[in-house]
């Protein structure tokens, strides 16, 4: 079980997830002696990278934050109602009828409990194309596609994964804040922190994320990051506007492959804070 779980840390399928950056971020942490820090992700999403660092004891604690209430609710369930969540998953049939039921919860989040919203987010993430909550169901509503609604719902595997994360709950802090507010709070605290900041991407953010950024949002974020006292790494899509916003900082290009119906290889930027040692940019397949 352990070797299988090492390959995949998060129960969420997340577009643009950065778990493949694990060896690079680990190298950065070690070179800059940040092992005893709190690792902070203001845009946590699937948390695959954060969980990997925690489970390998590369950092002492992690702080995961997401302004998306559904994503926050999911992680709240995993950290606070782990066994009940697994029971709910086991009891729930993976059908089109159930998909419509869970979709209603997503569309009316204030009418349901945190547990119900968290599970609905999880259900649609596993059942929808590419894990995108706003996308259609795998296989189509007539289920006449090559793959069916339950093809990403290996309950035995997901149960092991969720249970394993629960073992680390006392080393995980969770919040549901605007990323800018969290970044300010972290920098004003006395806690030794390292921030990995992976915002909604500039070009494709609107098509991938529920809470996407406009150009002015990216500008405000860059301004706040530029005055951070804590060490940080930012990753972005390689766009001229992003290069201009972070022109005073060191940047490294890299590529990751994502599975969004067809495989694509995206050119991206890693931007690194001043006064730190750059990580070794190993080849990412």
Structure in words:
- This protein has 285 residues and is α/β, with parallel strands linked by helices.
- It folds into 2 domains: 1-65 and 179-285, Rossmann fold (3-Layer(aba) Sandwich); 68-176, Adenine-specific Methyltransferase, domain 2 (Orthogonal Bundle).
- It is 40% helix and 16% strand.
- The chain is globular, with a radius of gyration of 19 Å.
- The chain starts with a helix and ends in a 13-residue tail after the last strand.
Which structural class matches the secondary elements?
alpha/beta
Superfamily at the CATH H level of the largest domain? Vaccinia Virus protein VP39
Largest sheet: 7 strands, mixed
For the terminal residues, how far apart are their CA atoms?
Answer: 24 Å
Task: Tell me the name of the CATH class of the largest domain.
Answer: Alpha Beta
Assembly level: single chain
Number of strands: 7
The sequence of SSEs as H and E is HHEHEHHHHHEHEHHEHEE
Please report the number of helical segments: 12
- Beta-strand share of residues: 15-25%
* Rough outline: globular
Helix share of residues? Answer: 40-55%
Average pLDDT rating: 90
Radius of gyration using CA atoms only: 19 Å
InterPro entries: Ade_MeTrfase_dom_2 (IPR023095), M_m6A_EcoRV (IPR012263), MeTrfase_D12 (IPR012327), SAM-dependent_MTases_sf (IPR029063)
Keywords: Methyltransferase, S-adenosyl-L-methionine, Transferase
Organism: Candidatus Liberibacter europaeus
Protein name: site-specific DNA-methyltransferase (adenine-specific)
């Amino acid at each position: 079980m352990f070797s299988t779980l090492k390959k995949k840390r998060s129960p969420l399928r997340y577009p643009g997830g950065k778990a493949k950056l694990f060896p690079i971020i680990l190298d950065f942490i070690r070179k800059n002696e940040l092992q005893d820090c709190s690792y902070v992700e203001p845009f946590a999403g699937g948390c695959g990278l954060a969980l990997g660092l925690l489970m390998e004891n590369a950092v002492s604690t992690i702080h995961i934050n997401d302004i998306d209430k559904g994503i926050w609710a999911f992680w709240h369930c995993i950290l606070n109602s782990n066994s009940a969540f697994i029971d709910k998953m086991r009891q729930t049939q993976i059908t089109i009828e159930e998909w419509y039921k869970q979709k209603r919860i997503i569309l009316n989040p204030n009418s349901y409990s945190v547990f119900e919203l968290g599970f609905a987010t999880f259900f649609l993430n596993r059942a929808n194309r590419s894990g995108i909550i706003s996308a259609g169901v795998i296989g189509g509503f007539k289920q006449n596609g090559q793959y069916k609604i339950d093809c990403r719902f290996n309950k035995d595997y997901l149960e092991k994964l969720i249970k394993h994360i629960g073992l680390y709950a006392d080393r995980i802090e969770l919040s549901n804040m605007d990323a800018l507010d969290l970044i300010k709070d972290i920098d004003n605290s006395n806690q030794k922190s390292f921030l990995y900041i992976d915002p909604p991407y500039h070009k494709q953010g609107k098509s991938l994320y529920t809470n996407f950024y406009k150009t002015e949002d990216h500008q405000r974020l860059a301004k706040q990051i530029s005055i951070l006292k804590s060490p940080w790494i930012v990753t972005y899509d390689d766009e001229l506007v992003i290069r201009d916003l972070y022109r005073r900082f060191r940047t490294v290009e890299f590529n990751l492959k994502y599975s969004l119906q067809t495989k694509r290889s995206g050119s991206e930027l890693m931007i690194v804070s001043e006064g730190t040692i750059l990580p070794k940019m190993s080849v990412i397949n």
